[in-house]
Design a protein that fits this description.
The protein is α/β, with parallel strands linked by helices and 509 residues long. The protein is built from 22 helices and 13 strands.
Length: 509
Amino acid sequence: MAEKKLKQQKQKHADITLLLEGTYPFIRGGVSGWVHQLIEGLPQYTFALVFLGSKEKDYTDPKYAVPNNVVHLECHYLWDPFSFSKPKACDGNSEYIQNSSKLHDWFRNPCTSFDEALVSKILVSLGQPSGFTVEEFFYSVASWEQICKQYYKNNADNSFIDYIWAIKSMHAPLFRIANIAHQFALSTGTFHTVSTGFAGLLGVLLHYLTNRPLILTEHGIYTKERKIDLQSLFIKEHRDLLSDAYHMGMQYQELLWLRYFESLGRLIYKASNPIISLYEKNRERQITDGADRDRTKVIPNGMEIERFLTLRAQRPEKIPLVIGLLGRIVPIKDIKTFIRGMRTVVTQLPEAEGWLIGPDDEDKEYAQECRDLVLELELEKNVHFLGFQKISDILPRLGLLVLSSISEAFPLVLLEAYASGLPVVTTDVGCCREIIEGSSDEDRALGCAGIVVPIANPEAIAEAVITLLTDENRWHSAQRAGIQRVESYYTQSRMLDGYKTIYDQALIQ
């Protein structure tokens, strides 16, 4: 394992410690690809990686060969069971609970003043004998009384059993994160978290414990993504129920979880500087969610254009009737809408093929549902599941790239498509419209590099695909716009220069 190999180097210092939740180096694509690009592109710095996962069994071998400037990797799993001694009642630290109640009051009303000294004291003593241990949380009289008090004050109309298990589940990973922070022995110049959530909270604790700067980059807005996850879970669990209440919104425990992640996000914004997003719309969302405007900035993703010039040269003169979707076979990518769109496409273009290119082992049940849908729509001769493929082998063989996602931030795959000379069709999510149509007057003057469609609309996807594949002039116009846009605004050097400036400033503090 890469983890063991790196630990054997016994490094004592890293310039930058990246805090990663469920991504690099164990998951391919998306944020993981960006992390790998960042590390490789800035070889003058040394990096340490702290990976937070769900359960150890959920992750196998690393999917990336980590670069030589990664000097440390440690992995922690937040949802593996705690090892307790035999439960034993205790009084608990009432003073700590009283102080933490003030923090919870700020979570409920973030317009009130933020007492950073108190928050620092609460967080750095979490899980410690001087503060509040995990045994005290689960077994103390003080903890039980506080949970009951908050239930009767704020939640008495809802199930107490659901409430108490939600509270226990929310707090359990916090103690594990606190333990990780206190055991972190590597000196570092700065911490850089690539999300809010649990990785971001670890960054806050390490920031307060070491007094080193904390940098935050949000590719997507974490709370928005967790809301989508919770809604998907809710729909899946209750789709057979007919009550209007179930169809109108999430259950109370899902709302508790959403408020929990929103509160963590505000806490992380308070400790981070700078707070980086990939595009302006997400920067404004960060500010709305509690980020200090003066700390926010935008650094778009970038591509190493030169790597794709050979792919561009391999593109056939005749436009292939092959529509590719590069991404994981998971619900958030809305693969089913792509498949349903292909049903309409093949009625007008019988030779057209749809290629689903990406791993299908993350949500095996959903992947099987997608395969079943292909059979149901009699598309087995047209739609193919190719699994993970080298992008260099795939892009020259496609006539269009399609993204049918219900949520994205700044998909690198669009830039890769442009650099290889491929137009795109994508849903109107994240930064996709900006990438296709342009973000400024000068950018928009380059033209559209594809077509933007509404989410969950297979007919709109089909219409856009058919339009581009049957209109060579429009296809070539979109191709030219994409190439010019990526070469003008989304180069890797621009992105890396932005982070080099930030790292240099952090390292002299």
